[in-house]
Write a sequence for this structure.
């Protein structure tokens, strides 16, 4: 990362500051102080801006030594009610809630809060008719179409727990998630548009159901959205039905009262990669998550009633859950759901959408900015982007070059940029700039949100050592000292894994897995993952998961080791070192087979960018792979290999260096 000097601080424009909810660092400091010293009042006041069927008895209770967290204890509410009826009661019934832009330019669907309430109520009744009850898990494998928020809010309405599987995941990955969640109902589509072509979702859904059956689990019902006309898919009698026909059935009422959920009742499960081969089912609950996404959306995007919000993430990731659907709708905002990609038909599709719908807040990932930057500034310059007032970045550290381009060509040098650091586990944004409150520095996410007590700590070898902050401008382990309302509450079905993953490394703290430094102003700069997780195009991938996929190609692969390496557009890419079984020849054709196999096992996002066949891996005498060496070779940092004398066989390093791809 380029050296950034003191003078490269970017101050929010005066006009922005004048209308911002938080307009100075002092105001932030006093609010932050109250948020951590008196959460009862701070979060109680914010939660009171939402609707509660029954008020909580106590705001929170936590015990990090057991991994126990509760918020709004005893309170009863429903997030679907807050996203729908509560908005209509505030007079927003005729305001557009979900603004769908399909890939075809003229394919636009605008759904008001009232229309959403009707659709959601009907679909909730469809689910009930199929026997869905509070606590049941529903798998959703849908593309970016308006029916996705409808399905989510319908689940939430009746207390069913949704688990959304990103459309880019393969049938096998979908199977794993359905099985782990124990979902009996799957919601999918016949297909969707992708760069001018029709892609099927149903084919993967069918395969996943067959694969589940092979493991003794039946998916009873599959509800299929007819996204594409003239795109036939097989429908299995007794199991598969069309979404549209279900909604239109004469016995489906358009009224469905929201189920009053305990604040700590589960809302959704979202799978994410960890440092073992098996993805974690991150569990979020109702009241705290709702309050947190409501508050973060409002303050971080400085949301005002007239704003049109465009988050380019897929709803299959947490960013879409929190900042396309739940956060915006709890605030009564207009939120864009965009089906397609930034580069089709031209690399100005985002900017064209900003122009067309006069978007005010735009939220995207550094990888998208870098990809669009390569296409040249003529694309944004050809569009009217003057409606924009605030820009956001998420998913990975943003390099100053991309930051400056975003600031100049998209923000017209007048829009504050908020670089937002968070995770699937955190439910909402934890570290970011409040856009009217303090200057930003490219590459720095800056300060913790209200209620977030973030620290950069020295590594600890045992819990007996006291926690210690690293000195200013030195890298430490990013940890959080207390719970915040949107924090995950568990790993579905694996209680020990929750505790062991997040509360052991730094006893008394939530351990994020990221490295961070803090500068003299207390600003945080994120330094990337410090565990075996790689961030490819803002998507998190566990290297162990990719290794498991490679190793399952048992006809050729004996062993593998996967690491990340820097990539100029994706941020990081995957580099696989593969030991072949004896008698198997390494070839380009075999590399292609391996890539195809990983795509089948996990999905295209897990395809290794580089594969190197090796005869051995650098291991310690106790058999542990020294990944540090593999990472250095993959990055081309051959002169930084460090001490290799502790290896069982140091000569493998020479071979690996020579064969570097
Ligand atoms: C990991 C979480 C949060 C939604 C998208 C990803 C990295 C995320 C930033 C940022 C530097 C970032 C971290 C984190 N990350 N945002 N602004 N600056 N790094 O969610 O898939 O759960 O991944 O993404 O490494 O741990 P996720």
């Amino acid at each position: 990362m380029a050296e950034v000097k003191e003078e490269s601080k970017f101050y929010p424009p005066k006009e922005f500051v004048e209308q911002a909810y938080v307009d100075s660092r002092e105001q932030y400091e006093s609010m932050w102080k109250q948020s951590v010293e008196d959460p009862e009042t701070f979060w109680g006041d914010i939660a009171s801006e939402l609707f509660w069927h029954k008020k909580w008895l106590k705001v929170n209770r936590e015990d990090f030594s057991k991994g126990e967290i509760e918020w709004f204890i005893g309170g009863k509410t429903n997030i679907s009610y807050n996203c729908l009826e509560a908005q209509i009661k505030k007079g927003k019934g005729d305001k557009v809630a979900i603004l769908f832009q399909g890939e075809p330019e003229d394919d636009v669907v605008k759904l008001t809060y009232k229309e959403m309430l009707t659709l959601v109520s009907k679909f909730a009744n469809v689910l009930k008719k199929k026997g869905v009850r509070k606590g049941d898990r529903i798998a959703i494998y849908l593309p970016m179409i308006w029916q996705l928020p409808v399905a989510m809010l319908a689940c939430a309405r009746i207390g069913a727990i949704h688990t959304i599987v990103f459309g880019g995941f393969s049938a096998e990955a979908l199977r794993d998630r359905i099985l782990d969640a124990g979902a009996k109902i799957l919601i999918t589509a016949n297909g969707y548009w992708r760069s001018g072509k029709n892609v099927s979702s149903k084919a993967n859904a069918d395969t996943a159901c067959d694969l589940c059956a092979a493991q003794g689990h039946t998916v009873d019902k599959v509800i299929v959205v007819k996204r594409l006309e003239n795109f036939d898919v097989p429908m299995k009698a007794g199991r598969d039905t069309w979404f549209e026909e279900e909604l239109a059935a004469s016995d489906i009422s358009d009224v469905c009262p929201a189920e009053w959920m305990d604040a700590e009742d589960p809302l959704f499960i979202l799978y994410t990669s960890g440092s073992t081969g098996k993805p974690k089912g991150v569990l979020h609950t109702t009241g705290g998550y709702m309050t947190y996404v409501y508050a973060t959306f409002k303050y971080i995007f400085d949301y005002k009633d007239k704003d049109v919000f465009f988050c380019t993430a897929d709803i299959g990731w947490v960013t879409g859950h929190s900042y396309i659907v739940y956060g915006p709708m709890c605030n009564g905002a207009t939120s864009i759901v965009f089906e397609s990609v930034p580069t089709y038909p031209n690399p100005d599709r985002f900017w064209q959408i900003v122009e067309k719908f006069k978007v005010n807040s735009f939220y995207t990932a550094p990888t998208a900015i870098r990809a669009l930057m390569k296409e040249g500034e003529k694309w944004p310059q050809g569009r009217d982007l003057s409606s924009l007032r605030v820009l956001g970045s998420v998913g990975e550290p943003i390099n100053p070059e991309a930051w400056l381009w975003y600031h100049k060509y998209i923000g017209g040098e007048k829009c504050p940029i908020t670089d937002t650091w968070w995770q699937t586990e955190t439910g909402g944004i934890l570290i970011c700039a409040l856009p009217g409150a303090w200057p930003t520095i490219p590459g720095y996410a800056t300060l913790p949100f209200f209620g977030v007590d973030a620290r950069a700590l020295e590594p600890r070898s045992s819990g007996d050592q006291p926690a210690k902050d690293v000195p200013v401008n030195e890298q430490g382990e990013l940890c959080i000292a207390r719970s915040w309302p949107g924090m995950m509450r568990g790993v579905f079905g694996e209680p020990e894994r929750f505790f062991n993953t997040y509360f052991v490394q730094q006893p008394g703290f939530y351990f994020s897995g990221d490295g961070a430094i803090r500068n003299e102003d207390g600003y945080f700069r994120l330094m990337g993952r410090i565990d075996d997780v790689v961030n490819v195009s803002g998507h998190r991938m566990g290297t162990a998961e990719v290794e498991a996929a490679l190793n399952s190609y048992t006809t050729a692969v004996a062993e593998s080791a996967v690491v990340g390496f820097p990539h100029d557009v994706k941020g990081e890419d995957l580099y696989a070192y593969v030991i072949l079984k004896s008698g198997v020849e390494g070839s380009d054709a075999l590399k292609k087979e391996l890539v195809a196999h990983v795509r089948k096992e996990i999905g295209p996002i897990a395809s290794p960018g580089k594969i190197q066949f090796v005869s051995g891996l650098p291991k310690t005498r106790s058999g542990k792979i020294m990944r540090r060496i593999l990472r250095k070779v993959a990055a081309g940092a051959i002169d930084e290999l460090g001490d290799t004398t502790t290896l069982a066989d140091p000569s493998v390093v020479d071979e690996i260096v020579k064969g570097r791809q």
Observations:
- Residues 272, 317-319, 394-397, 419-424, 445, 512-514, 526, 529, 535, 540 surround WT7 (CB under 6 Å).
